[in-house]
Design brief:
Layout lengths: L10 H12 L16 E4 L7 E2 L5 E2 L6 E4 L1 H18 L18
Antiparallel strand pairs: 1-4, 2-3
Bound molecules: zinc ion.
């Protein structure tokens, strides 16, 4: 028996908790395509959202995960990342120097 570490639940701990409450992802169908799910996918709508050291967001609430297959999981994660990039204010892009204009004498 290992005593539970103090402090907020970890990324791994949160996913284990989902498995304990709701079973293995592979025993569910993917919420997007209906195929066999492989991952529990965080819905990114928890106001009490946590983030681990690698920048992965997760929730301590097992109800905020949906079963998804690998390709749908990738798809939603990429769409979310692109949305973040598109909406985030960004500095003006650096203009690459494509050519050097020779002085015309
Ligand atoms: Zn799917």
């Amino acid at each position: 028996m290992t005593p539970r570490r103090p402090g907020p639940i970890t990324y791994k701990g949160a996913h284990r908790r989902v498995g304990r409450r709701r079973g293995r992802a592979r025993d569910h169908g993917c919420v997007d395509c209906g195929g066999p799910a492989r991952h529990w996918c965080y819905t990114h709508d928890d106001p009490a959202e946590l983030e681990d050291g690698r920048g992965y967001e997760y929730s301590p609430d097992p109800q905020r995960y949906e079963p998804r297959c690998v390709s749908c999981h990738k798809h939603v994660d990429l769409a979310r990342l692109e949305g973040r990039v598109l909406t985030a204010p960004s500095p003006a892009p650096l203009q690459p120097m494509l050519w050097i204009e020779w002085p015309t004498v």
